[in-house]
From TrEMBL:
Cofactor: Zn(2+)
Annotated Gene Ontology cellular component terms: cytosol
Species in which this protein is naturally found: Flavobacterium nitrogenifigens
Binding annotation for substrate: N62, Q63, E64, N65, A66, A67, Y68
Lineage of producing organism: Bacteria, Pseudomonadati, Bacteroidota, Flavobacteriia, Flavobacteriales
Name of the protein described by the UniProt record: Cytidine deaminase
Residue numbers binding Zn(2+): C73, C112, C115
GO-annotated biological processes: nucleobase-containing small molecule metabolic process; pyrimidine-containing compound metabolic process
InterPro entries for this protein: APOBEC/CMP_deaminase_Zn-bd, CMP_dCMP_dom, Cyt/Deoxycyt_deaminase, Cyt_deam_tetra, Cytidine_deaminase-like
One Pfam family matching this protein: dCMP_cyt_deam_1
Keyword terms: Hydrolase, Metal-binding, Zinc
Length: 160
């Protein structure tokens, strides 16, 4: 028997002002699109902004449905749009923010497992890490330098 240790590390920024200018702009756009989320059931609004290597910024917000599982998270709304509109472009950076209508989210909100799996597909496809920044409504911002850092031991095409 043996044990392995896999470590993940994150950079933590105290607030938006501490972020590099381009990420500040990306996060500001994520905040704006978050406000357009369709989240009548959870009242939990999420916004995602992606920067592509062709300079385009792609935005997405969560879209809920009365048949709950038919809804989609903000991250996948954005990444599937990027994948379908600019299939040749690489996704370089992603900013995520979440805010609840019922209580203020002060902790950084990381992407859910399904979103991590979906983002992983593109990171592997493009063979270039995607920087991921995530925050709540206010407070600290976490930076992960890749999706792999957020999803160790991931399932991917090499197992198929
Ligand atoms: N949600 C996201 O948009 N992204 C995540 O990574 C986690 C959850 C959405 C889904 C649902 O509309 C609401 O937040 C509550 O789960």
């Amino acid at each position: 028997m043996k044990e392995i240790n896999i470590t993940s590390s994150f950079t933590i920024f105290d607030n938006l002002n501490e972020l590099p200018a381009d990420i500040q702009d990306l996060m500001t756009q994520a905040v704006e699109i978050r406000k357009k989320a369709y989240a009548p059931y959870s009242k939990f609004k999420v916004g995602a902004a992606l920067l592509l290597d062709n300079g385009k910024i792609i935005l997405g917000s969560n879209q809920e449905n009365a048949a709950y599982p038919s809804g989609l998270c903000a991250e996948r709304t954005a990444i599937f749009y990027a994948g379908s509109t600019y299939p040749e472009a690489k996704i370089l950076k992603m900013a995520i923010t979440a805010a609840s209508d019922t209580n203020q989210t002060t902790a950084p909100i990381p992407p859910c497992g399904s979103c991590r799996q979906s983002i992983a597909e593109y990171e592997i496809k493009q063979d270039t890490p995607i920087e991921i920044y995530f925050m709540g409504e206010i407070g600290e911002i976490y930076k992960s330098s890749s999706l792999k850092n957020l999803l160790p031991l991931m399932f991917d095409k090499k197992f198929l």
